[in-house]
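Section 5: illustrative case.
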């Protein structure tokens, strides 16, 4: 049994017999001397309630039933109102008083001892009760720790959501393009991210990423990756050089073999060309009024895996009214109750049915589509979507 626990816990004896205190102190003198038992005494239930306030360390109450001012059964009712699972009461009564003992047990007594008291039996009962209280208090401590962790995770979620752009339209003065994005984490915090930023008046940087793993480690790596890409991208360097630089930084700082898939692009709003690098990410779709097509891969590997890897860039052009749809694999790897994945075929069917929809509709309806598909199945992965549209008719 935990020694620190034993030294702090007090046992309160509640009985109106004056000679009981010296008797107990004599019978348990060794345990008292060794700090195993620490007794407090009260003459009735009313005094016992006062002692509980004076000595919050009381964990066990040994209470007689028949006492003046407030009897043991009334005391049990008052103790029940405290709703303290770490406080256990053992009632003491005559062997023939089974009706009162039964009432006491129904009112929350943990155990009972009959008179005349067998002190060996009393010691066994006290030790057993101590062990039960120790288990209860450990459980309460673990519960408090879980509540604290949960609160920390909720705070981390708020921080993570705060670093992702969430005000739309983000550039209300720009009428030449639209952009919308959203992320739903599978847990309190996630490893997916998106971002976009004006490098200058004519160049829009945008990125979507998916960190390996889940939970807090992925969330931290996500924040680092997003920050590095934004800080490097804002310098206006070409997309391949940006990925080369960020990859080397992540390789040097990466722990626990974490990595991130990334699609990073720069949209030139004068020519409507998009220079991009795909670092092991799902290929986006280019959506026009005539249909959809995948954006070609650039044979780039995941970031944070191999130092000094040389990334190559690709180029596409957005026509009038065309959209670029980016997503993470939480979409295609969402499962239903039949353990079927949503998959690329359903995704492409969905996109073909939304060729002319606004960017916010494409994203919001996609979430609804996946939620309907995987109804009653817990979300297994983060889901992130980002869509950019060039203004004008296609």
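Designed sequence:
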């Amino acid at each position: 049994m935990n020694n620190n626990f034993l030294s702090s816990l007090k046992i309160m004896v509640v009985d109106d017999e004056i000679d009981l205190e010296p008797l107990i102190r004599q019978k348990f003198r060794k345990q008292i001397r060794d700090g195993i038992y620490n007794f407090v005494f009260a003459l009735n239930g009313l005094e016992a309630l006062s002692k509980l306030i004076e000595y919050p360390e009381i964990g066990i109450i040994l209470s007689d039933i028949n006492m003046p001012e407030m009897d043991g059964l009334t005391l049990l009712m008052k103790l029940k109102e405290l709703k303290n699972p770490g406080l256990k009461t053992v009632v003491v009564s005559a062997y023939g008083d089974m009706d009162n003992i039964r009432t006491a047990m129904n009112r929350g007594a943990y155990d009972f001892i009959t008179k005349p008291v067998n002190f060996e039996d009393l010691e066994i009962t006290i030790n057993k009760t101590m062990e039960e209280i120790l288990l209860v208090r450990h459980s309460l401590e673990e519960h408090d720790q879980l509540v604290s962790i949960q609160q920390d995770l909720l705070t981390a979620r708020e921080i993570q959501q705060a670093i992702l752009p969430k005000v739309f339209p983000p550039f209300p003065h720009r009428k030449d393009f639209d952009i919308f994005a959203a992320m739903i984490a599978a847990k309190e915090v996630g490893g997916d991210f998106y971002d976009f930023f004006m490098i200058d008046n004519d160049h829009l940087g945008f990125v979507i990423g998916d960190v390996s793993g889940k939970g807090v480690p992925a969330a931290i790596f996500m924040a680092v990756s997003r920050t590095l890409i934004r800080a490097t991208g804002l310098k206006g360097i070409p997309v391949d050089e940006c990925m080369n630089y960020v990859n080397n930084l992540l390789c040097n700082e990466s722990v626990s073999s974490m990595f991130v898939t990334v699609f990073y692009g720069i949209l030139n709003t004068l020519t409507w060309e998009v220079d991009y690098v795909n670092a092991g990410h799902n290929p986006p779709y280019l959506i026009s009024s005539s249909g959809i097509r995948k954006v070609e891969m650039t044979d780039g590997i995941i970031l944070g895996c191999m130092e000094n890897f040389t990334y190559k860039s690709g180029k596409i052009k957005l026509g009038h009214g065309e959209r670029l749809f980016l997503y993470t694999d939480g979409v295609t790897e969402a499962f239903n109750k039949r353990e079927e994945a949503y998959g690329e075929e359903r995704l492409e069917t969905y996109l073909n049915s939304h060729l002319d929809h606004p960017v916010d509709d494409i994203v919001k309806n996609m979430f609804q589509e996946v939620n309907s598909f995987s109804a009653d199945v817990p979300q297994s992965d983060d889901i992130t979507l980002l869509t950019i549209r060039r203004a004008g008719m296609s």
